[in-house]
Fold these 4 entries.
Entry 1:
Amino acid sequence: MPLDHRLTPEHEELRRTVEEFAHEVIAPKIGDLYERHEFPYEIVREMGRMGLFGLPFPEEYGGMGGDYLALGIALEELARVDSSVAITLEAAVSLGAMPVYRFGTEEQRRTWLPRLCSGELLGAFGLTEPEGGSDAGGTRTTAVRDGDEWVINGSKCFITNAGTDITGLVTVTAVTGRGADGRPQISSVIVPSGTPGFTVAPAYSKVGWNASDTRELSFDGVRVPAANLLGEEGRGYAQFLRILDEGRIAISALATGLAQGCVDESVKYAKERHAFGRPIGANQAIQFKIADMEMRAHMARVGWRDAASRLVAGEPFKREAAVAKLYSSTVAVDNAREATQIHGGYGFMNEYPVARMWRDSKILEIGEGTSEVQRMLIARELGL
């Protein structure tokens, strides 16, 4: 049976609400914050009051009782205006709070989720390591059981939301033992911010996403209670493969928003900018560029909504999530390049949103699984 990707009245109301918030609250402020590499605390607080951080979580944990489709809708609308704000929400929900909800004990859920859903605290996900990258299974960080505690040593890199003033926890993957075959057993452990030995490095100097928080983390004899184990010991890597599958849908929605934002800005500019006595939008070369951009954004939207609908329906979605992430990230880069070209010299100026979009687009082909990894996943799902 074909999936219906049309929005329900509730989802459409959410879309309009976030669209209005993005244009009226984020758009006037984000350019200055981006240039100053400043985290948008007030915007994040407002998003918390709107319930965006709790969208896919049950009301009993302080959530909004929505689903992953609702989260994707919000991410797309935010990213049409700015990706730094969108990735802050995506990482906080998909990578920070979702592991606690999916794999946590009831006590862990009730301890953390209400504050994560309200935006009072942000969660982070410590998977990638300096020697790892795409080889996330080659974890070197260790967690050794010492009585009623885990002792953690190691480092993580490229961690979003890791060092803000409202970061509450980082869930860390670490080797907790060896199997009978000698292979490392990877588990997940919750490390609250401020735990002795847990050091957060200064924020990275990045090409894009300059109003989001990304840092390297180090763990030197960090002790946390044994009860901070998230899920079953030795199943941490498998758990986060599931989390990353879901996260790819969210990143695809974000990439679609960026691609659509490039269309929005290009249409606006093509109507306003005159050359040789008429708007540049009257030229077929510009019209065709923008038409192709719209086509790509539309098909990216179909892709992520298809994957999200399958997830919500409880159907297999791994292949569809990889396809959506691969396609949407590719077209986000393509649309950002074309939007910059349409704007000409002004597209190279930071005062124009397309300059931000051009800088922000490339990471979408790298983060949460590179384009090469997505192709590997798709091929594997096809039985190759």
Note: The chain has a mean pLDDT of 95.
Entry 2:
Amino acid sequence: MKNSILLGFFFVLLAACQDDDFSLENRDETIKGQWSFKSITLTPAIDLNNDGIPNTNGFEEVDTCVLDDLFFFGDTGGESNVFRIDENASRCNDTPQGSTTKFRDNYMFNDDKTILNFVESDITYFVQEISETTLEIEFDEVIEGQTIRVNYIFSRD
């Protein structure tokens, strides 16, 4: 009986490890698709919208027209590793007239798939998680002389 319990525990551990390995080995394919914001966390709290209230919840600090943007990773028009931010229902004023794309770049992972780089804009994100349903990335940004850790969590559309 003891051996059966240990054997069952071993298989549960093995299955859990295989899920983690899948995420790492297949990040190039897993990231492909359309994503939308699930959350934005700012650490420490900051007042980006100038309402006098510093906040860690980025949804409280960022314009609504940004929060419904769609994020695309994949291959398009014969080109590999294309990243695009497209407007959704609410449009911001900075998008070119007649276009829904507000940002476009190419992306690549480092060798161990823990860093996501955008080639032309030279932006680097630290990958926290990639699964079939969740993409979590972080980066540091200096705003008004203060370093802010920005954490984005996206869900797959």
Note: The helical segments are 2-25, 27-30, 58-61, 64-67.
Entry 3:
Amino acid sequence: MSRFMSQSPALPTSVIQHDTLFTTPLDKASRFSFDEQVVACFPDMIRRSVPGYGQVLAMLPILARRHCKYRQQTTDGQRVSRIYDLGCSLGGASMALAGEFAPHDLQIKAVDISPAMTTEARTLLSDNYPEHDIEVITADIREIELEPCDMVILNLTLQFLPAADRVAVLEKIYAALSEGGILVLTEKTHAFDEQYDAWLVERYYDFKRANGYSEMEISGKRNALENVLITDTLDEHHSRLDAVGFARHLTWFQFLNFVSIVAFK
């Protein structure tokens, strides 16, 4: 099956467990977190909850081949394309790239704040791509220093940061990118028009129903994500990219209320 037709993240099927986190009622105070329980079922959760995620991953190597031009240099003097996967979770984006590039072509730095995620990502990446230069880092992307790079991937990550911190993260990314480099920003959004937004949200719930989620599961996850995942409008994303210095940026992908933007340095 074509990678473009698959909704599955680039993870071995042996690690995929069924998402049953919200099959029973949760305490109203419970909040979503990227802990061991989420790690265990994360690929299934993403496949069934994020429209178009597989297509976004499949495009990353294509974008990288076009825009990563070996601008960086390793400590031993070798020219490479350095890519950051910020908010890497289990490393799906890093695996999508490693699977399409020779080991000596890329230097990937995958960063996530969740130790449960990075522990599993480190194992998956080292097991599947032992010859690639992939470093998995447990850190807050708001605090980590970025080396000069050719591409930054920010997939479904900015939405989990406080709104007040988002500009600073994008400013840091812009400063680290070499001229000609790109940022790929993928986010869940909401529409400014309430009627339009309500239609998108309900179709999104239909998407989840079609993927086997019950009304209790849909409601439970929605409640758990309240005040944890805070969306912006598409216009807000583009305005923010303008503000930090990206002169060119476009929405290259949209599936319901999920969008992916590419911004050019």
Note: Residues 128 and 153 are 20 Å apart (CA to CA).
Entry 4:
Amino acid sequence: MASENKKNNCSGCLKGLVDNMFLKCSFCSDCYDLECAGISEQCFVGEAWDAWKCVACKSKQPKTGNQDTPARAGAGGVTVRRGASRMSPSGLDALTPEPLTLEAIFFEVLRSREETREQHRDVCAQIAGLREMMRELSGRVERCEGRVTALDKRISSLESRTDSIVKDSAGRLGAFEQRLEAVETRRAGPETDGGSVAELERTVSVLRRELNDRDQEALLADLEIGQLPEAKGESVLHSVCVLASRLGVPLEERDVVFAERVGAPPAEAGGRARRVVVRLARRHLRDELLRAARVRRGVAEGGGRVFVNERLTRSNRQLYHQVREECRKLQWRYSWTRRGRVFVRRSDGAQVFQISSPDDFLRVFGPPAI
């Protein structure tokens, strides 16, 4: 191998030489880079090149009829070079690379095998990662299928229960109507005496109360919202969800069965917003909204106040209105509703009375003052 380089450029291509990456001819002392010398980097590191001769010096050796000599003199003294040649700036032909040795080919084969093994390991790792991802994805799909199946079963169960409840309620309502019609028919008969009329009236009153209680039970998941601002083209469902969030109760649209306004349009009602009737999918959501509304004592909305109450039947709503008016006259402090029933109390610590009929009204407040 060559020692220190006395020249800065390659004698073949005249390019700058890299430190220790060149060969020095043992005859002419010219230096050549590895590309011009036709030597690979692996062979250059693996062998000793102290006795290396350049192609020009090899061609000066006595000829022995070797046809593989890189340069041969032709007719007229013209030198014919085999293979690809390079021209130096001075017009001299570049040196033809020397053929690779068996050891260089061996090192090239080893390097190629190592690169192939690395690529094979990378491909195997990627395939293993893909298999793991597929197993995880398959597990997630199976879990999702199980949840969907459970939801289908729950929905089917709820539908069957709802159908049975509706059928039972329809049957009872039909029986009540038949009984009421029978009572009214008997009441209108010509042979009815005074005692029978009074008894029939009591029976009709009892039946009406039972029908009213049934109707009130059907409204246990309903709310009535008053003074909620109304706008043209509004989404009542969205307004209800926004109001619930202001009360601190998270409410999604899927939790609401329906939400609509009832009553005369604002133009016909003097510009006053119509009340909103809401039915929730679960009763405990209605109870949470009522508790939050009682704590807030009316929620401010656009400069006004919004009131949230439980929904009452027409009969109970009229009775509650009469009770409130009477409490205002007699200066009773408390009147409220709970699960469709009306309650009153004169003051703190006083007895609580339940009013469910005009008879209870007379019993608690007495006959009206003349």
Note: The chain has four domains: 22-99, 105-212, 220-311, 313-370.
